[in-house]
Each structure stands twice: as structure tokens, then as C-alpha cells.
Amino acid sequence: MAKSTIWCLRLLLLVFSLQAHAQTDSERKKMLRDSADRYFDKKTEHLNYMSYRLQLYADSALRIDSTYAHLWRMKGFPYLQVGDIEYTLRYYDKAVELEPQRWLAYRAFCKTVFLKDYESGLQDFLKADSDPAIPKYEMDHSFAFWKGICYLELGDYKQAKALFEESIQEQTGRLGTTKVHHLDLFYLGMAHAHLKEYDRAIDCLKNSLTKYPKFSDVFYHLANIHHQLNLDKQALDYIYWAEYYQLEGLKLNETNEIYVNFPEQIAIGDIRELMRKLTKK
């Protein structure tokens, strides 16, 4: 009985010791991370994210906590802005290695939008989609939406169409039809247009305008579709509005479009080229 009691006490002491050690390690890790965060945030508060100094401050913060995935991601950010794939992925891969549930889908987004690597971006989205612990949204859009973008740019328009429809259906069920994002409708319209399903494309693009009535890209694509259908009078009406709203800066309305063009996005030169074709007749 006495030996049994002594053994139990020793076991309890061992458990308490391990718990205390784990708590100490956890607290130490949190303290290091908080310190790295405070240092980096203070140094970069008024810094342009394309500045080389961001690299220096990220390096210094990583000396405090080299396991902080966010800092590895920030090291890659300036390279992302200038399209340097090698260095971007070097640091983003490290962030994903350290914290895959937080950064895998973000890396997929960056590959898709910034690096235009649709095949690799799609593979990352598929992998993230298969992990039940990862939320199925990235940068305000569903995984179905982003996978649809990848398939659209890879030329698989039927698969893209199915995924945009899935994204719209999910939003409708969760939020109602009035809350469907204008870009889901826009890209669904573009998938129809590529498949030469022009009536459905026009319906989708016009539906996008009910969410964002001054969306210049939609007016351009409506003009182009009507031109393809030899309906140049209607096309002219749309192209004039496209030019007007484009000059007003009313484009996709995505935060990152200040850094990069999104798929199917048009510029003022595209509008004026189509306008010249329409006014020559």
C-alpha cells in the first residue's frame, strides 16, 4: 500500500512537472511572438510594403521568433508586388510549412492573382479544400470562385462555369440573392461568353450590374458580345458607358487591383480599340 502511494505521488509530481514545463514553453513562445510582432509593427507602421526596408525589419523580427509564419509571408510580399516568382515562393513556402492551415489558401490566391500560375494555384486550392480545418473562403471569395478563376484561365470553361454557379448557389443559400457578389456573376458571364452562350452571358453580366451599376468592365464585355452578334448600335451604347465609368475609376472594386490586373479585366486602351471598330462602320 505504501509503495503504491509513493508511486502515485511520483507519477503526479512528474505530470505536474511536465505541465509546468509545457506551460513555460508556451508562455515563452507567446512572449517571443508578441515581441516580434511589436517590433515589426512599430518599424513598418508607415512603411510602403514594396520597400526593401521591410525585408530588413522582417529579418530582425525573425531573429526574435524564426517560427513566425506571418513574418516569412511579409518577407515575400515585396517580391510578390514585382512578380518575382522565385523569391515570393521561397518565403511563402516557408510560411505554409510553418502554418499550413493559415497560409496555404493565401499562397493559392497569390499564385492565381499575382503570379498567374493557375495550375499551381488550383492545386493549392484543391489541397486546402480537402482540409476540413481550413475555412473555405480566401480574400472575401469562396474556394469555388477561385477554382473557377483558375479553370477559366486554363481554358476549361465548362468547369469554370460549374464552379461559379456553385459559388453563387452557396452565397444565395447563406445570404440570399441580393447579397451575391458582383464578381461571381461577372465571371460566370465570362465563362458563358467563352462558350459562345451569349444570351446567358448577357443575362449574367446584366445581373452583375444590379449589384454594381457602374462596373466599367461589364459594360465593355456587353459591348463586345453585342459586337460579336452584329448588334453594333447596342454595342456603342455600352462602350460609351464603359469609357465613362473606366475614367471614373470604377473597375472591379477589388483591393488588390491596385497592384495587379485580375483575369478578364480591361483597360482604357481596350475600350477605345473596340470603340474605334464600332465607329468605323
UniProtKB/TrEMBL annotation:
Residues 1-22 form the signal peptide. It holds the Pfam family TPR_2. Keywords: Repeat, Signal, TPR repeat. Gene3D superfamilies: Tetratricopeptide repeat domain. The keyword Transcription does not apply. TPR repeats lie at residues 69-102. PANTHER family: TETRATRICOPEPTIDE REPEAT PROTEIN 6, UDP-N-ACETYLGLUCOSAMINE--PEPTIDE N-ACETYLGLUCOSAMINYLTRANSFERASE SPINDLY-RELATED. This is Tetratricopeptide repeat protein.
